[in-house]
Structures are given as structure tokens and as C-alpha cells.
């Protein structure tokens, strides 16, 4: 269906992007879209572009200007909060140790989890509240953008839904709205990211990247 | 359309500490600068160039707005906190290595801003000003307001700023930035000692 088709494009925000020839690099982890000569980065911009180009069902980005504003409000807050914190769990637990050969810095993970907790609290109290989805009774781009970041800690063993029943219920509703099969397909790489720990990295590459990655830890 | 703590739309609810612009339109309230600007552009059917109907140009505005949050918006306002607001509330002198760190982060963002977004164009998405330029300029005026003139040794940025001032109208531009440009005067105000005590730990945490 059109919305499931859209869902496929939206949820593939990890390196592989099904739209045209996505240009991505694992290290930058920038989803990118190529549509003929037109290239576009930034997940939010890509989702909005696709929703307009393919005239997706209204609920994704409602035409009602107040509901639309609520999606925009979430998307804006998201960048400095969820998106700033959730992916760090993956860097700290898997990617940095992989490239630097150094063990997990536990106080760093602690710090990151605290930051993430603060964001999750705001997410629940300010945005989700007692609604089914972020802007009300129907799923929108806001929910998609949120869920893909929040699955990253899950992928590295920090299950942030475990002791947050309201969030867990919301996640279930998002899975159902997108379709379980598509949802897990979209998150396949994230959920198996720990397998990356077993791959061999070229020592020269490690040497080049280690200082960059250590700087990220600050 | 102008920005900053005072918002001409209805009764703007802002608090100096949070510095969250907010819009109130009847019963409808909205926060987040980007969301507010988009809402206003739709409600008042503003000229197309602000948020072009062409989906590729519009996507380029969205792309900038998205990148902006994690980069310019993450770095530029810190200069104001480090140089004026935190010393004001904690009574502690300027931590110079912190400012250094912030300026380095801001430099990195500015380099990307010039090379990836602005390039040799008049404005971020091309020959006409858009919401992207507005959102960028208001954050970049903050370091200027506290004496870190990031335009000084960046001629391309300086030219862009002049074009934005002209497009918005010089009078309106400076009116919008009045508070930011006189923020140093805040250093002279007296803060209630009890309030200082309450806020100091929160602000010190921000410095980390």
C-alpha cells in the first residue's frame, strides 16, 4: 500500500536507503536520497520530501496547520534531544570500542544514559502524554523519526522501553501502524549491530579513526 | 516576521532563562522557533520564497533547518551563556577554556555552514532569502552580541549577513536583535541572591 511503501522508505534510515542510489558512509551515518540529479541529506528533510512527492496519506504530515505545526514542533525538539542522545549508546557500546580497541568507558555510558533519560522524560511528559501517538490519535512522521532513534539503544542492549510502560505501549502502536514485518526489517541492522563487534577492522583504518572517535567521547 | 524573546503574535510566553520563543494563537500554543516560523508562513500565506512551494527548494530549506539544530543552534548560543549569563548567575568569572572550546565548535559549524550550505550563493538555498537564512542569522547574532564577532574574519559570511539585513530591512533587523545586541547590559543587573543560589548548580552543570 502507499503508506506501507512510504513506511519502507521512511524506516530505512540506517545506511541502506532504498530510494535511488543512496550515498552513505558508515562512519558518517548520514542517510541520503538521490532523485535524479537532486540529492538530499538529513532524515527529516528526506521524509518531508518523500511525503510531498508521493502525496502520502494526510496523517503522516497533516494538512491542518495546527496539527502540522505539532509535527514540526516535535521534529525541531527531537534534534537537540533524542537525536543528540540516543545514538551515542551505539557509539559508546559498539562502534568506538570496535575502532579504538579500547574497552567500554563505563562512566561515559552512564552519562549518556542519564542524558537520554532526561530526554525520554520530556518526550513522555511534553509530547506523548496520554495520547496514542505524538500528535494525537494517528501516527505521523514525528513518531517515525522518534522510533528509529530510540531503537538504537535497544540494539546495543540498553532497552529504554523496559521500565517505561507508556513508551512501550506507544512503540507497540507504532509497530502495528507501520506493520511488524516492515518495522523489524527496517531495524534489522540496528538490532544486529552487536555482530559488528566480531568483524576485523584494518589496523591502518583503526589508527586513522581512533583519535577522531576519542574526541567524540568528550 | 521577527524573532527573539518578544513575539508579536498574541501573548508570547517566554522566560529569559529558557529563552524559548513561544506562540499563542487563541487556544493553540506552539514552541520551537522552526515550528513557529512554518506555522506563521502557512497561516499568513507569506511570499513563496520564505518556504518555496517547489518541493526540491523546500527540501533544501528543510535540510538546512534540520542540520541547524545539531550544529549552529547547539553552539552559537553557548557563547552568550559562557560570557554573560552564567557569570551573571553564578558570580564566577569567565572560564576561558570553556569559551575556547565553544568557539572551536562554533568554527567547525561555521565552516560547514559556508562550505555545505551557503557556498557561493546569495542565500542558503539560492538567489532568494528563505526561512533558512532567518533561522541561521538569529543564532549567529548571539556571539556578536557578546563580543565574539564571528563575521569579522569571514568575508563570505559577512556579505551574506548584509544581504539578509537588506532583505529583511535594516530597521527591522536591528529591532529584532536589540536584546541580543545589548545583552552585555545584563551584567549590570542585580540578581536576587536566593535565585542565584538555586540556579548556580543548574548552570554549572550546563558548563560540562
TrEMBL record, chain A:
Its EC number is 2.5.1.18. The keyword Cytoplasm applies. Its main location: cytoplasm. GO terms for cellular component: cytoplasm. It is found in: Cytoplasm. The keyword NADP does not apply. Residues 64-205 form the GST C-terminal domain. GO terms for biological process: glutathione metabolic process. It catalyses: RX + glutathione = an S-substituted glutathione + a halide anion + H(+). CDD domains: GST_C_Theta. Homodimer. Belongs to the GST superfamily. Theta family. This is glutathione transferase. It comes from Bubo bubo.
UniProtKB/TrEMBL annotation, chain B:
Its main location: cytoplasm. Residues 1-48 form the GST N-terminal domain. Keywords: Cytoplasm, Transferase. It is found in: Cytoplasm. SUPFAM superfamilies: GST C-terminal domain-like, Thioredoxin-like. Belongs to the GST superfamily. Theta family. One of its GO terms (biological process) is glutathione metabolic process. Homodimer. PANTHER family: GLUTATHIONE S-TRANSFERASE THETA-1, PTHR43917. The keyword Cell division does not apply. This is glutathione transferase. Residues 54-195 form the GST C-terminal domain. One of its GO terms (molecular function) is glutathione transferase activity. Its EC number is 2.5.1.18. PROSITE patterns: GST_CTER (PS50405), GST_NTER (PS50404). It is an enzyme of class 2 (transferase).
